Amino acid sequence: MVLNGLRGSDRRALVLVGPRQVGKTVLLRQCIDDLLDAGWPPGNITYFDFSDDRLTSVVTTPRAVLEQKPPSFVREHRRAILLDEVGRVEGWADWLKQLVDREAHRILVTDSAAHLLHDKGRESGLGRWEEHTLEGLTYREYLAFQARPGEPGEQAERRLPNPLEAFLFFGGFPEHVHNQSLAQVRQRVRIDIADRALLRDLQQTGVDVQRVRDLFVYLMEDSGSIFDGQSRSRALVRMGDDRPDKRSMEKWLGLLIDTHLVVRVDLFATQATGKLGGRARPKLYAVDQGLITAFASTPRPLGDSRLRAQVTEAAVLRAMRSTSPEGVTYAREVTETDFIVQRFDGRVAVEVTSSGQLRGKPNEVRERFGKAQATRALVVHGGLEEDAKGTIVPIHRFLLDPDSYLKGR
Amino acid sequence: MVALGDKEGQKLEFKRADVLEDPANVAREVAALLNTEGGKVWIGVIEEAGVAVSMQTVPNPEAARSRLHDALVSRVEPSPTNEEVRVVVNDGLLCVEVDRGRRGPYAFLEKSMRGYVIRVGARLRPLSLDELRERFSKAKPERPGQAEEAIAGLRGPPREKNDRADSGLFVFIAPSLPLELDLRSPQLEPLLRAPESSGNRAMGWNFSGRFHTLKVKSGVAIWKADFPTHQLMIDKKGDLVFSVPLERLQWQGEAREVCPWVLAELILSVCRLYPLLAETSASGPPPQVLLATSLRGIATWTLKPYSPNSAGYHLTPAGEANADLEPPPLLIDFSELKSTPDRCGWRLLEQLYDDFGFGADQMPPEFNRATNQFVLPS
């Protein structure tokens, strides 16, 4: 999508945001490769990384980057400008707006969502740029990373040692796909998320970053729970500090959602109970299951049945969001199923269980999904059993192709 | 430890230190213990009426221990294994620890004579002819040829040239005595499904598999998936064959390049598993096991020395196999396989590295020779 956008004739710039470590920089460099393959003159492709201290001591603004034109620059050809970590530059949004209005360049900028948050100009860019969010790898992408050239994901899955377990543990962070050390990956994710994305990047938003960090860790430990601001605020009281008020809590939570570390899932509301849906407290999930394992207090999180269930739900939710980004709600209080996915082709009630022992779950779900006026029911589980109708689905198959199961086979 | 005042009995015997001058005396006691319930022979203990009254330090106990062990191996028939008989130095005394034997009846050899005795209380009694006949009729024959024949049977006939169907990594394990495994035991499948229970990594390269199921037919348990991948076959006598398609040996490297971690961990995984299986045998674990590997269809595949974590690994010239690799089997005490499975598996791996043209010092450094453990980053 990003590559097509860059190659196309649309004047609007592309802003690629996403949490740390999901591969924004790699994607940006792939775009450069793609442009070169498409015959774009090398001199007309400008790449600059604003996180590189060696460069930013000489060139400090995007404007200054644009002034640099190599001798091979072709005046008659359009220019592609690719700026990494642009959020580190004060006023980047104003500059980008002016540039889009003035020149017909193709522009792609990236940064972690946390960095961009403090820049109010981001919101006023509507119409001048398209914002794309990059998340961690899906299971199919995770397998593709490890597949041999031309090897389908299903085949790689059979060849690799327990890839589903590894995906559930490591999450979709591309940097760690080939790492064999569970401890090392957990430590790196903790450092990168807790210390860099939260403590450092959010510093510019002026919030109490330590408390945001504490809130984040609590949410990871309780991923998939209904958010109870009052009890959370009690838990966030630090020595010598007041108990955080409701507004602060909401603000911190908003930041964590905007930085794409936490996903909010609202209560499903039928027409009759629409008001209830609006008032009800949301469930909050880790955006990537690897965050749950990284911040778990036990060294073997997948050996703990509660954590395993949380990890499984987060992974399934991630897969569903990739096909139905806006349409996932939770429905425990209404229909006693985990999720309701609203799609253009119908409504699907989804029950998730990390266990392979189904013990009548499919029938229960079928009975309940009528309450949600769902057109289909789906049980995603940790075993291998699968039925011909596609109602009972092993998690590895669902993660490989969520769309086809949600659509119905 | 023995104390003054302790009394000789069914499982306890005292000997003076000078018994070492004629180890045949000790061999007789050991054969009797092997034929009954096992027990201990303390050397360096003076007894009166069967009660320990004083101790004598054995001079140069380490050397005496070694000499006595050698004497017992040659004077008891069948020769006791390290699992059956152990000689240990304890506070200046020697102690011969004897487990009940499973390959009896045991004889002590004296000149040209074989003596069969059992222990009754603190005394020895010769076995009667009827008792001997009965014991011999129950005795299980040693496996024919011990090593080569058993493994050759598992390996099967030589591979036809270019027969892709028979290519792959194979690990064979055969006990020196037939086991009596209950392949329908409810414990077996969890053991195969959860590699951590045998000390393997949950996400490592091993015999386990998410898509595998266990089927038992005609006295053979087959752990396999419904598509071509690694599989494990165990028969009720304890013979095990683990086969892995060659494609699984490649990880991250070039095409047809064996990843050292994968090769090592796959072989070691079954060495870690086997002792747990053998110990469930109704007849108890075997005294010894035969281990062997084969790499078939490996010609033109390459292997680099050291490990993917070693500096300059990707630039290191690789060794190349030019034919099937079928190193000779290794005969290993079961106690050694149980206590140091990685070390035993490593010996198999050393053979394969040798065939690729690499010495032991060029093998992956993740094997720690001090702890005898192979540990990948985890």
Write up this protein.
A five-stranded parallel sheet of chain A has the order 2-3-4-1-5, with helices on both faces. Helices cover 43% and strands 16% of the residues of chain A. Chain A has three domains: 2-133, P-loop containing nucleotide triphosphate hydrolases (Rossmann fold, 3-Layer(aba) Sandwich); 181-266 and 280-297, Winged helix-like DNA-binding domain superfamily/Winged helix DNA-binding domain (Arc Repressor Mutant, subunit A, Orthogonal Bundle), CATH 1.10.10; 301-409, Trna Endonuclease, Chain: A, domain 1 (3-Layer(aba) Sandwich), CATH 3.40.1350. In chain A, 42% of the residues are buried. Chain A has 409 residues and is an alpha/beta fold. In chain A, strand 10 and strand 11 form a beta hairpin. The longest helix of chain A has 19 residues, at 182-200. The mean pLDDT of chain A is 83. Chain B is α+β, with helices and mostly antiparallel strands and 378 residues long. Chain B folds into two domains: 12-127, 2-Layer Sandwich (Methyltransferase, Cobalt-precorrin-4 Transmethylase, Domain 2); 148-374, no CATH class. Chain B contains eight helices and 23 strands. In chain B, the strands form seven sheets. In chain B, strands 13-14-15-16-12-18-21 form a seven-stranded antiparallel sheet, with helices on both faces. A four-stranded mixed sheet of chain B has the order 1-2-7-6, with helices on one face. The longest helix of chain B is centred in the C-terminal third of the chain and has 19 residues, at 260-278. Chain B is elongated, with a radius of gyration of 24 Å. The mean pLDDT of chain B is 88. Chain A binds chain B through residues 148, 158-159, 161-162, 164-166, 169, 178-184, 302, 384, 396, and chain B through 202-206, 208-211, 225, 227, 229, 247-248, 250, 252, 255, 261, 376-378.
